[in-house]
Design brief:
Layout: H1 7-36, H2 45-57, H3 64-74, H4 84-106, E1 110-111, E2 114-115, H5 117-124, H6 129-152, H7 158-185, H8 194-220, H9 229-253, H10 256-259, H11 265-268, H12 274-282, H13 285-294, H14 302-314, H15 317-337, H16 345-360
Antiparallel strand pairs: 1-2
């Protein structure tokens, strides 16, 4: 039977399949972990911690890192590849670690429609805030350790396991550096330098959300990512910048009914994002003063946020952000299109389309 499906439709079908299959594997992983976790017999806190990790990990998310992993392996082969399932677990456990620690840093009460791990512990221990904080930190640490152990237990050759372990630990370290730089960035006065914003996006998210899954997929499939390291890093950086810029854009110009988040959070928290840079660079006179007064005002009223949003549209800041996002996406797509000469075309098509999807998303 001739396959008449549009190439984009085939990619989207594969993406949906990855998400469904991985969610089932992730649930089974936590079932096994709960039954086999080595902990003192008296400990109630350990199984409760594993339960909170499970609940957060399975609560949602698009699993795009898992998609990247499997599509990266498809660059080399469409056959079965040993070690991919373990690498997928490792990627998402590292993400769980990051979510838990992000929510502690941001003092966030909710995540993906439910309580954060930190606030779950705060509710459990209302009179012992240090205990709640300590257990939340340790839950994130446990997720990181489990992430690395998943690679060491992978069904792959020792050389592949070692290479994947090194790639994942490097990505984790880069992410921690990115988090530090992200906090440092908000101490700037005036619009943040664009290269600072690019570097934060690269270290904080691109290296572990894009580069590491791509490297892990190629390593498992025998694709030797080291031979193309500079090109893969460039691609991941460009797509990471697009994604972070889109997040920042949606924080002010998005539809709360679609994003599930209120607008203006970054402004109220005083975060020097791409959007804040665009606003401060484009607005003048009284408009700039309105933006500056809203920045860092935790009690900034909704009507002022709406005024800042209108200033962003009127000054051209929003349009310029959309243009810059599109330019970066097109550059990344052109870079990936050049992979046809060495890798499989159907997977190359995914990497070619991904940058455009990242800037067109609405939530």
């Amino acid at each position: 039977m001739v396959d008449t499906a549009d190439p984009a439709e085939r990619v989207l079908a594969r993406v949906a399949g990855y998400e469904s299959r991985f969610n089932a594997r992730f649930a089974a992983y936590f079932d096994t972990l709960a039954a086999t976790m080595d902990a003192p017999a008296f400990s109630r806190f350990t199984p409760e911690c594993v339960g909170l990790l499970r609940e957060l990990s399975l609560r949602g998310g698009k699993r795009m890192r898992v998609v990247l992993l499997y599509e990266a392996a498809r660059l080399v082969t469409d056959g079965p590849v040993d070690g991919l399932d373990a690498a997928a677990l490792s990627i998402e456990l590292l993400q769980t670690h990051g979510l838990i620690h992000d929510d502690i840093i941001d003092d966030s009460p909710t995540r993906r429609g439910g309580p954060t791990t930190y606030y779950a512990y705060r509710e459990k221990f209302p009179g012992r805030p240090r205990t709640a904080l300590g257990l939340a930190i340790l839950a994130g640490d446990l997720a990181l350790a489990l992430s690395l152990r998943a690679l060491l237990d992978a069904d792959a050759t020792p050389a592949v396991r070692q290479a994947m372990f090194e790639a994942q630990t490097r990505a984790a370290a880069d992410t921690f550096v990115g988090q530090i730089a992200d906090l440092e960035r908000d101490f700037t006065t005036g619009p943040a330098d664009e290269e600072i914003l690019h570097s934060v996006a690269d270290y904080k998210s691109a290296r572990y959300s894009l580069l590491a899954p791509t490297e892990l997929g190629l390593l498992a499939a025998g694709g030797e990512p080291g031979r193309h390291a500079a090109e893969l890093r460039r691609y991941a950086r460009l797509v990471g910048i697009c994604g972070q810029m889109r997040d920042d854009y949606l924080d002010l110009f998005g539809d709360p009914g679609v994003t599930g988040k209120p607008v203006g959070t970054d402004l109220r928290e005083g975060r020097h994002t791409y959007t804040v840079r665009a606003l401060l660079s484009a607005a003048t006179g009284a408009d700039r003063a309105v933006v500056a007064s809203a920045l860092g005002d935790a009690s900034c009223p909704d009507q002022v946020i709406a005024e800042v949003r209108e200033i962003g549209e009127r000054s051209g800041a929003a349009a310029r952000m959309r243009a810059v996002m599109r330019r970066h996406a097109e550059e990344a797509s052109a870079l990936a299109a050049g992979w046809h000469r060495r890798w499989r075309g159907d997977a190359v098509a995914f990497f070619t389309r991904l940058p455009v999807w990242s800037v067109e998303r609405t939530g």
